[in-house]
């Protein structure tokens, strides 16, 4: 009879451990949830928020582009060189014409995770050369942000923002969960 009781308890213990692991995973995911911006920034903005296990630094950049009908002769391109925004200026339809460059440096004594996100009307036009990666201490990453138009891209103004989110562990042991 003792063997049956032990197996019964062992099954319940396994079920409890599995339930705890699932609940813990859901809690960590819910705590670390990143919300979409309600309004897009007009200038570069820096925010810090945290969860139970991680600290997040988010740099928000305004971003926009004016897409114009592609013409072979006399094409006017607009360039924006302000370091505080990721605007692409005036870009014609039908090609990959816009690129902005970023350098990100990890000055911490531990690894961090870097994510880039685009929001707004501009989101479908934006791609990143590198995204969702780990930076080790004293490492620099160079990232290109591309604005891609096709022949089917409608002319008009596209706005939104591009965010750089740095995820830092609160405790060194949590680096493995980045």
Characterize the structure shown.
The protein is of the alpha+beta class and 178 residues long. It has two domains: 1-31; 38-177, Immunoglobulin-like (Sandwich), CATH 2.60.40. The chain has one helix and nine strands, in the order H-E-E-E-E-E-E-E-E-E. It has one helix at 2-31; strands at 45-50, 54-68, 89-92, 96-105, 112-120, 126-128, 133-135, 140-148, 156-169. Strands 1, 2, 3, 5, 7 and 9 form a six-stranded mixed β-sheet that branches. Strands 4-8-6 form a three-stranded antiparallel β-sheet, with no helix packed on it. Strand 1 and strand 2 form a beta hairpin. It is elongated and about 75 Å long. The termini are far apart. The relative contact order is 0.21.
Number of domains: 2
Q: What profile does the largest beta sheet have?
A: 6 strands, mixed
Distance between the termini: 47 Å
Tell me the fraction of residues in β-strands, as a range: 35-45%
* CATH fold group of the largest domain: Immunoglobulin-like
Oligomeric assembly: single chain
């Amino acid at each position: 009879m003792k063997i049956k009781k032990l197996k019964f308890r062992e099954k319940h213990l396994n079920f409890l451990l599995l339930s705890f692991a699932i609940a813990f995973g859901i809690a960590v995911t819910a705590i670390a949830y990143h919300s979409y911006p309600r309004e897009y920034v007009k200038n570069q903005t820096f925010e810090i928020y945290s969860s139970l296990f991680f600290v997040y630094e988010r740099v928000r950049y305004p971003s926009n582009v004016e897409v114009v009908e592609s013409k072979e002769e006399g094409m006017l391109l607009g360039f924006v060189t302000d370091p505080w925004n990721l605007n692409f200026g005036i870009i014609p339809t039908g090609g990959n014409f816009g690129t902005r460059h970023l350098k990100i440096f990890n000055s911490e004594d531990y690894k961090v995770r870097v994510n880039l996100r685009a929001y707004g009307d501009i989101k479908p036009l934006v791609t990143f050369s590198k995204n969702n990666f780990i930076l080790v201490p004293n490492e620099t990453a160079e990232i290109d942000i591309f604005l891609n138009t096709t022949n089917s891209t409608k002319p008009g103004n596209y706005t939104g923002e591009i965010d750089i989110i740095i995820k830092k562990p609160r405790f060194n042991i949590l680096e493995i969960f980045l």
